[in-house]
Amino acid sequence: MTTDGASRIWFDGALVPWQEAQVHVLTHGLHYGTGVLEGTRVFGTAGGPAVFRLEEHLRRLLRSAHMLRMPLPYGVEELAAGTVELLRANGQGACYVRHFAFLGDGSMGLDMRGVRTRTVIASWEWPEQRPSGGLRLKTSSWRRTDPNSVPPAAKATGPYLNSVLARREATDAGYDEALLLAADGSVSECSAENVFVVRDGVLRTPPVAAGALEGITQDTVLVLARDLGIEVRVERLLRSDLYAADEVFVCGTAAGIVPVASLDDRGLPAAPGGVTKRLAELYRAAVSGEEPRYAHWLTRV
């Protein structure tokens, strides 16, 4: 990650210099994880930079805040306008955008009532880094919590500690990414990506009930797959389903669509497989504006 080319951050409705976007050390969200976030990508197209599925990301941000009972002072239209304003001010082409809302300073303790919500939009360069030959996954000893403990439908900051620990465990052991299981032992997701399995031409991915985030890129893949005539199922998966799969890939806003080469040192058939290739090609056409069927997913900067 680099901040090259980004001179401004949108902070509580105004553009401020990057170095001046600061908060107090007694910020509630810093101590208690009371924040919600979104990661959104800007892609270069023939018509200039475009934000991919911006409205869907912002609607999820508002839903997440609602689940945490955090009042947001801005709606989707205001945040979308702020995003475009920021990107134009920074003059960036392809980049990553972070939408972030958190409880600020003024009151400490677990009682969050009366603490004001701060809202931030930032952008930076985040080039894709994909290992050649596909990802090497390791099943993590850390598990996703029960959905009734921390709601996986809310993209909140606090629960990301679970992902941080899982990713650190995997990378320390020499793997690229961690696969997390749900409390019942079924497959949930990776530390920052949704998981897809292909077997006998059928595409499958775990449900929210398994502790998996209802991903925007996951939804994109499901739409693309149906448009390609691929049968799709959102259903419970076991780790053995991945071991026995014809293809496995992960997807996320930052990652895109990335094939998996192995899980727990069990090699998978050549990555990427045929279904993964078809989906990745259509995904690239969608985000770049080359496929007009998905032009409604692009917000032009």
UniProtKB/TrEMBL annotation:
Keyword Amino-acid biosynthesis annotated: yes
Gene: ilvE
Coiled coil feature spans: none
Transferase listed as a keyword: yes
Pathway per the UniProt entry: Amino-acid biosynthesis; L-leucine biosynthesis; L-leucine from 3-methyl-2-oxobutanoate: step 4/4; Amino-acid biosynthesis; L-isoleucine biosynthesis; L-isoleucine from 2-oxobutanoate: step 4/4; Amino-acid biosynthesis; L-valine biosynthesis; L-valine from pyruvate: step 4/4
Substrates-to-products reaction catalysed: L-isoleucine + 2-oxoglutarate = (S)-3-methyl-2-oxopentanoate + L-glutamate; L-valine + 2-oxoglutarate = 3-methyl-2-oxobutanoate + L-glutamate; L-leucine + 2-oxoglutarate = 4-methyl-2-oxopentanoate + L-glutamate
Keyword terms, alphabetized: Amino-acid biosynthesis, Aminotransferase, Branched-chain amino acid biosynthesis, Pyridoxal phosphate, Transferase
Gene3D superfamilies the record matches: 3.30.470.10, D-amino Acid Aminotransferase, subunit A, domain 2
Organism encoding this protein: Kitasatospora arboriphila
InterPro entries assigned: Aminotrans_IV, Aminotransferase-like, B_amino_transI, BCAT-like_C, BCAT-like_N, Class-IV_PLP-Dep_Aminotrnsfr
Record function comment: Acts on leucine, isoleucine and valine.
Cross-referenced SUPFAM superfamilies: D-aminoacid aminotransferase-like PLP-dependent enzymes
CDD domains documented for this protein: PLPDE_IV (cd00449)
Classification lineage: Bacteria, Bacillati, Actinomycetota, Actinomycetes, Kitasatosporales
Protein's UniProt name: Branched-chain-amino-acid aminotransferase
Cross-referenced Pfam families: Aminotran_4
Family that this chain belongs to: Belongs to the class-IV pyridoxal-phosphate-dependent aminotransferase family.
Cofactor(s) the protein needs: pyridoxal 5'-phosphate
Enzyme class: transferase
Assigned EC number: 2.6.1.42
